[in-house]
Amino acid sequence: MTQPVLAIIWDSMTGGSRALAEAAAQGARGAADVRMLHASEADADTLLAADGILFFFPENLAAISGVMKAFFDRTYYPCLGRIEGKPYAIMVCAGSDGRNAVAQAERIATGWRLKRIAESQIICTHAQSPDAILAPKTIASADLEKASQLGEATAEGLAMGIF
After folding, report:
1. Are 49 and 6 in contact (CB under 8 A)?
2. How far, in Å, are 4, 30, 31, 53, 61 from residue 1 at the CA level?
3. Cα–Cα distances in Å, from 158 out to 32, 104, 112, 122, 133?
4. DSSP state of 99
5. Cα–Cα distances in angstroms (integers) from residue 128 to residues 10, 109, 134, in the given order
6. SS3 87
7. What average pLDDT does this structure show over 113-128?
8. Contact 106, 90 (CB under 8 A)
9. Which DSSP helix (H) or strand (E) runs through 77?
10. pLDDT of residue 79
11. How far apart are CA 37 and CA 11, in angstroms?
12. How many CB atoms lie within 10 A of CB 76?
């Protein structure tokens, strides 16, 4: 029996979102064929081939990061009407808020008619100064565990046919 394909699409400027995506991939391995791709490398075929999708990205200036937004722009219409019902979840790495970036991504997912399988999560780094915002991020082990559990639960749910 072939494993389900789990696409993990990520973007990161300072390493926080990447660390979360890597933790999710680690949690998912064994139950799914994990395809972890930077948003600049992922395309419509990535989404079409996936059985489930996890998105990890930072909030930049109260919005989806530019590279992730460009990914959504490139893939939205080629995938419209072709990925309906696929399970997805979102995790955003933010300095203070993250809600607008989540809202934007959830609207895109709603337009695609994806199936949300977990509440979107915001991992707050509390970076407030320019130096702190631009500094490499170290994600707390509890937050990495949340990402790992999200990856594991998604992969297992796909493998068991729950999603």
Report:
1. no
2. 9, 13, 11, 20, 45
3. 8, 25, 19, 23, 36
4. H
5. 23, 29, 10
6. strand
7. 97
8. yes
9. helix 66-79
10. 98
11. 9
12. 14
Token pair in block for residue 89: 């979840």
What would the DSSP string read from start to end of 2-50? PPPEEEEEE--SSSHHHHHHHHHHHHHBTTBEEEEEETTT--HHHHHH-
Position 89, amino acid: A
Contact by Cβ (8 Å): 139, 20: yes
Query: Could you tell me the two tokens for 43?
Result: 């395309």
Q: Quick check: 54 and 9 in contact, CB under 8 A?
A: yes
Amino acid at 8: I
Residue at token pair 């590279």:
67
Residue type, 39: A
**Residue bearing tokens 């631009």:** 134
pTM: 0.97
Pairing of the two strands 63-64 and 52-60: antiparallel
Contact 58, 14 (CB under 8 A): yes
Structure tokens at 57: 């990205």
Confidence of residue 43 (pLDDT cuts 50, 70, 90): very high
Stretch (H or E) spanning 90: strand 87-94
